[in-house]
Amino acid sequence: AQSVTQPDIHITVSEGASLELRCNYSYGATPYLFWYVQSPGQGLQLLLKYFSGDTLVQGIKGFEAEFKRSQSSFNLRKPSVHWSDAAEYFCAVGANDYKLSFGAGTTVTVRA
Amino acid sequence: NAGVMQNPRHLVRRRGQEARLRCSPMKGHSHVYWYRQLPEEGLKFMVYLQKENIIDESGMPKERFSAEFPKEGPSILRIQQVVRGDSAAYFCASSPPMKQVGSPLHFGNGTRLTVT
To answer: Longest C-alpha distance within chain A, in Å?
Structure first.
């Protein structure tokens, strides 16, 4: 069975500061891994994905994530946060690109 | 450029009633996926449909739940004889016909079902 844990329910970060969101997964083989973002009143938007190859993946809006097989992690990072990054972030794991299980999400608040 | 449209946004049903959730995919998309988010949990895959075909229903509960995507009209997720445990947010996503592996799914805003 596949599962995802996002240990942080809520993170507050100052504008301009760096951000790291944690994601740990459980899956028997090499998984498909995703990060999605949901802004208030909006649907989920794909930030980035990993299937194979380079373990450091770049996404939209300046985000990146690193796949670490030994730690079963896929943490999301951004060097400098903007106020518009305030949203809820979801990590997802799957056997393919649609049979996904999502984490419960991390809400990011950005303070001026 | 309408995205994935789900309606209603909120649906209240009494125990034993039927719930029908609708999803209109993005224009030009012919693949539809349904996910369920139970309280305090993340979204989980339920079913994958193409026009008039169920491709993968491995995430669907065995009883009371069904889904269809007819040749014309929206995809429908139907829950018969709802129980309190069906209270959740139900999300729909779509993708284009010639979907490449890893191409993004486009999600709707979800339907929140409350069973009283």
So the answer is: 42
Closest CA to A34 of A26, A20, A23, A43: A23
SS3 A62: helix
B101 touches chain A (CB under 8 A): yes
Instruction: Please check whether residue A101 touches B, CB under 8 A.
Output: yes
Q: What's the pLDDT tens digit per position in B31-55? A: 999 999 998 888 999 999 999 999 9
With 80 as the cut, is the pLDDT of residue B99 above it? Answer: no
Higher local confidence (pLDDT), A53 or B66: B66
Q: By CB neighbour count within 10 A (0-12 exposed, 13-18 middle, 19+ buried), where does A52 fall?
A: exposed
A70 vs B: CB within 8 A: no
CA torsion through residues B45, B111, B65, B25, sign: negative
A97–B101 C-beta distance less than 8 A = yes
Q: Which residues of chain B does A43 touch, with a Cβ-Cβ cutoff of 8 Å? A: 3-4, 91, 106-110
- List CB contacts (< 8 A) between A90 and chain B: 42-43
Mean per-residue pLDDT, A71-82:
96
Residue A2 has pLDDT above 90, yes or no: no
